[in-house]
Write a structure and sequence with these properties.
It is built from one helix and four strands, in the order H-E-E-E-E. It is an alpha+beta fold. The mean pLDDT is about 90.
Length: about 130
């Protein structure tokens, strides 16, 4: 007896669906990881920009005119309502010199139950005639 079998059996369809489901679950897991990485990268970029902006402002203020300070809960524009804390410290006698001051700007934030920070350091010097 010669039976002509055309099409798929129920078992073949179930196996194919199971394999496809595993592949889709793997893609979903990868998508979640990518989204978390994108969020982390955005926070690092924002923190770096906040630190650079403050550092440039301190440099433009000039030698001897800066004071140590901090801002809490700021957003990417430096306004209230964000997750970042920005602090800056002025060391007026850097390397025991009255003509140099060390400036350190640190931006701190928390995400995914971890605390992160970015620090920038620079030295300002007094114009000497």
């Amino acid at each position: 007896m010669n039976i002509d079998r055309k099409g798929f059996t129920l078992i073949e369809i179930v196996v194919a669906m199971a394999l496809m489901s595993l592949g889709l679950l793997a893609l979903y897991g990868m998508q979640v990881t990518v989204m978390k990485s994108n969020s982390s990268s955005k926070n690092i970029t924002t923190a770096t920009l906040l630190a650079e902006t403050k550092m440039e402002g301190l440099k433009n203020t000039g030698f001897g005119n800066n004071t140590t300070g901090y801002e809490t809960n700021i957003d990417e524009a430096g306004q209230a309502g964000g997750i970042f804390t920005r602090s800056w410290q002025i060391d007026p006698n850097y390397q025991n010199s009255a003509n140099m001051e060390k400036v350190t700007v640190t931006v701190t934030w928390s995400d995914q139950n971890r605390t992160h920070n970015i620090s920038l350091k620079s030295v300002l010097s007094k114009l000497v005639d």
